[in-house]
């Protein structure tokens, strides 16, 4: 089984240790290092992680600055932001900077491991029980956004189907299964969707789907 290399970046040693124990417990995930923000760029260069879990708020070097630096590297890792409910004001900036997802720091262990695997496979963390809460706060503010809705009208019917499921947090394999398509076809549709919407990653496309009113919010109390 291929091993995914993970770097954890957080200013709190206890947080790094806890996340490291959870992620490292999976046989296919290897925590190759942990550090605070100021060391992140150097360690990414030295350790070549596939996935970086990055705290969005750090005193020495904030997560958004680290994210921009990592995304500017020739072969950047997938970066998911570690966040809490009081950091919603940073979500839009992180999306535009290329974050591949968002994880709440109190994410259940099994969900954290699953999220890292999704990131390693080239997907984005859009779990309804984790990320939609954050996305919901970002897009909150009434009915569908006219500009977002206009952008989605460029899409074909099948691309709209894929976008809706992407916005619901489904992986490529799950979308393929739901729509009776091959995973390669789904990837092609997502590439086309990103190009037409001017989005740099799946998270941005998912937020736009929410803004356009394509994704119905459901009661998550039992999620």
UniProtKB/TrEMBL annotation:
<keyword id="KW-0597">Phosphoprotein</keyword>
<dbReference type="Pfam" id="PF00196">
    <property type="entry name" value="GerE"/>
</dbReference>
<dbReference type="Pfam" id="PF00072">
    <property type="entry name" value="Response_reg"/>
</dbReference>
<dbReference type="InterPro" id="IPR001789">
    <property type="entry name" value="Sig_transdc_resp-reg_receiver"/>
</dbReference>
<feature type="domain" description="Response regulatory">
    <location>
        <begin position="5"/>
        <end position="120"/>
    </location>
</feature>
<dbReference type="InterPro" id="IPR000792">
    <property type="entry name" value="Tscrpt_reg_LuxR_C"/>
</dbReference>
<feature type="modified residue" description="4-aspartylphosphate">
    <location>
        <position position="55"/>
    </location>
</feature>
<dbReference type="InterPro" id="IPR058245">
    <property type="entry name" value="NreC/VraR/RcsB-like_REC"/>
</dbReference>
<keyword id="KW-0238">DNA-binding</keyword>
<dbReference type="InterPro" id="IPR039420">
    <property type="entry name" value="WalR-like"/>
</dbReference>
<protein>
    <submittedName>
        <fullName>DNA-binding NarL/FixJ family response regulator</fullName>
    </submittedName>
</protein>
<dbReference type="GO" id="GO:0003677">
    <property type="term" value="F:DNA binding"/>
</dbReference>
<keyword id="KW-0805">Transcription regulation</keyword>
<dbReference type="InterPro" id="IPR011006">
    <property type="entry name" value="CheY-like_superfamily"/>
</dbReference>
<feature type="domain" description="HTH luxR-type">
    <location>
        <begin position="148"/>
        <end position="213"/>
    </location>
</feature>
<keyword id="KW-0804">Transcription</keyword>
<dbReference type="InterPro" id="IPR016032">
    <property type="entry name" value="Sig_transdc_resp-reg_C-effctor"/>
</dbReference>
């Amino acid at each position: 089984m291929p091993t995914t290399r993970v770097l954890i970046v957080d200013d709190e040693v206890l947080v790094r240790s806890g996340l490291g124990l959870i992620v490292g417990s999976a046989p296919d995930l290897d925590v190759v290092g942990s550090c605070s923000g100021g060391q992140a760029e150097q360690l990414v260069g030295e350790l070549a992680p596939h996935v970086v879990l990055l705290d969005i708020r750090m005193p020495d070097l904030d997560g958004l600055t680290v994210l921009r630096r990592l995304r500017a590297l020739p072969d950047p890792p997938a970066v998911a932001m570690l966040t809490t409910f009081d950091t919603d004001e940073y979500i839009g900036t992180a999306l535009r900077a290329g974050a591949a997802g968002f994880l709440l720091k109190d994410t259940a262990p099994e969900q954290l491991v699953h999220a890292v695997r999704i990131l390693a496979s080239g997907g984005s963390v859009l779990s309804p029980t984790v990320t939609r809460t954050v996305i919901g706060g970002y897009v909150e503010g009434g009915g569908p956004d006219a500009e977002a809705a206009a952008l989605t009208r460029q899409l074909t019917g099948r691309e709209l189907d894929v976008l809706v499921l992407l916005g619901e947090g489904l992986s490529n394999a799950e979308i393929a299964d739901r729509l009776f398509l091959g995973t390669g076809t789904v990837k092609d549709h997502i590439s086309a969707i990103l190009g037409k919407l001017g989005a740099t990653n799946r998270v941005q496309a998912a937020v736009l789907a929410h803004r356009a009113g394509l994704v119905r919010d459901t009661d998550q109390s039992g999620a």
